[in-house]
Amino acid sequence: MFDIKDLYQEVIVDHNRSPRNFGKLEDADRTLEGYNPLCGDKLTLYIKTDGDKINDIAFDGSGCAISVASASLMTDAMKGKTLQEAESLFNHFHSLVTTDDDVDMEQLGKLAALAGVKAYPARVKCASLCWHTMHSVIQGDNTPVHTE
Amino acid sequence: MNKQNTAMNTDTSTFDIEKIRADFPILQQQVNGKPLVYLDNAATSQKPRQVIETLDTYYQEYNANIHRGVHTLSEKGTAVYEAAREKVKTFLNAESTKEIIFVRGATEAINLVAQSFGRNTISAGDEIIITELEHHSNIVPWQILCEQTGAKLNYIPINDAGELILEEYEKLLNKNTRIVAIGHISNALGTINPIKKIIDMAHAVGAKILVDGAQAVPHTKVNVKELGCDFYVFSGHKLFGPTGIGVLYGKEALLDAMPPYQSGGDMIQTVSMIKSTYNSLPYKFEAGTPHIAGVIGLGAAIDYVNELDLTVTAQYENELLDYANEQASQISDLKFVGTAKDKTSILSFTLGRIHPHDIGTILDGEGVAVRAGHHCAMPVMERFGIPATARASFAFYNTLAEVDALILAIDKCQKVFG
């Protein structure tokens, strides 16, 4: 039996209500869009890098609380990271929401709040939209991301 | 809000809700520790045991291929299958069973008409009219036909209540209009369109008209002879029947002149290595072994709704909708999407800044099943400037107490998001 509060934790409600790093980053050097065509969630990710370091990152778009909070938390976590560290975080997050594997919660920090999504298979794609978009950016892929 | 009053008296006093609910085994369960409140009937309806048992009997006692065997089981199967066609004919008040084609669902029926009737009669410069209210299944087949033929696709717009603007329809109609395709009732908003008037207007310019009745047949009596429509389509699974079975009604003369849609066994008279001749109606359009169990199950579903009487159930559903509207209107931030004067039992809404998908998840936690999303009607969402709505759609087995459960669950959404 799942309590709905396990999914909609305070951190998620808060990041949905006041998303961090929300808006267009004018001097971004990497920009990519992500879509969930079936539910209509969409976001654009803006990244400003210095070498392989993420100097600044932001997003805009619209979606459900899970997708907005996930993007807000992810962008917070990505600031100052190298692209390799970002990719490692992507793998950790992916394990967190899709597997029963032991995940290094310490490395995930606040992102651990999204662990509750695993119990709601239909909502995993909401939480992972921004992450798949981020992953594509790191891979140097320029085609918009779909997570259906 | 939170008015816990379920003791509302209804005029439908002959309506024994407990007896009806007992016919639907699936309703007697708990979901997430709460009694299931199934309010996603516009997506698919639940099946009474009469339908389930009919399917069971077919598979256990007379499963056989039809129209070809000389053995006993095949003859029994053929007889029950064709009896179901007779039931559909009577249900729609069609002229003849030749006008009743079994297909996979409303979607396949529309594709059949677009590709068989449409491609045979439409050419560049012709016009097709649909509406802003349509389900994608009544948009995309016509878009494809227009791409194939160079015809032009026009849309009848809707007003802020979600009603078709007939003055605009009048302006779109002209001597080039070949086909009008329109939903009888909107799946996203519940609007009941003035279908008879729309049909007459199409015929006045010589156009043929297809009516998508997927949302209509569970809620209203349909009489194709009286309506005068050229094609009428519906899906069995929304009418308490099995999935994967649907009906295309077409006027015999039109169907007769149309080329086959798919080809293979059962739809031919003779096959030589040079040429084949086609079977007569309705078999010309039923290539291959059909969904025999589906057809037989649909027949049982039609018996079931006939027994209940659709005019009585519609009245009861209206009472549910009125009560839901009254209760929902007391929730702050709840905005109704689709407020047509003539409406079936669909409550489509948004709730402040709470996204419909979050509403859907939280309601599910309370055992309440609704649909959240664009309802395969993205142009409708675009018209209202929203990405999605939450939609509660009622059937005759729902209760006033279930409306209360819905309202309490919506209240919970607001609490979760503070």
Provide structural commentary.
- The complex is a heterodimer of chains A (about 150) and B (about 425).
- Chain A is of the alpha+beta class and about 150 residues long.
- Chain A has one domain: Alpha-Beta Complex (Sufe protein. Chain: A), CATH 3.90.1010.
- Chain A contains six helices and four strands, in the order H-H-E-E-E-H-H-H-H-E.
- In chain A, helix 2 crosses helix 3.
- The longest helix of chain A has 16 residues.
- With about 425 residues, chain B is α/β, with parallel strands linked by helices.
- The longest helix of chain B is centred in the N-terminal third of the chain and has 21 residues.
- Chains A and B meet through helix 1 and helix 2 of A and helix 12 of B.
Briefly characterize the structure.
By secondary structure, chain A is α+β, with helices and mostly antiparallel strands.
Defining key terms:
heterodimer, A: alpha+beta, four-stranded mixed sheet, 4 strands, 20% strand, globular, B: 418 residues, alpha/beta, Aspartate Aminotransferase, domain 1, Aspartate Aminotransferase, domain 2, 2 domains, 14 helices, 16% strand
> How many helices of chain A?
6
**SS-based structural class of chain B?**
alpha/beta
Give the total of beta strands of chain A.
4
Note the beta-strand portion of chain A: 15-25%
Write the layout of secondary structure elements.
The complex is a heterodimer of chains A (148) and B (418).
Chain A: H1 4-7, H2 10-17, E1 30-36, E2 41-50, E3 53-62, H3 65-78, H4 83-98, H5 105-108, H6 124-138, E4 145-146
Parallel strand pairs in A: 1-4
Antiparallel strand pairs in A: 1-2, 2-3
Helix pairs in contact in A: 2-3, 3-6, 4-6
Chain B: H1 17-22, E1 30-31, E2 34-35, E3 37-38, H2 49-62, H3 72-92, E4 100-103, H4 106-121, E5 127-131, H5 140-149, E6 152-156, H6 166-172, E7 177-183, H7 195-204, E8 208-212, H8 224-227, E9 231-235, E10 246-250, H9 252-257, E11 268-271, E12 276-278, H10 292-308, H11 310-328, E13 334-336, E14 346-351, H12 356-365, E15 368-369, E16 371-373, H13 378-384, E17 389-393, H14 400-416
Parallel strand pairs in B: 3-15, 5-6, 5-7, 7-8, 8-9
Antiparallel strand pairs in B: 1-2, 4-10, 9-10, 11-12, 13-14, 14-17, 16-17
Helix pairs in contact in B: 2-10, 3-10, 4-5, 11-14, 12-14
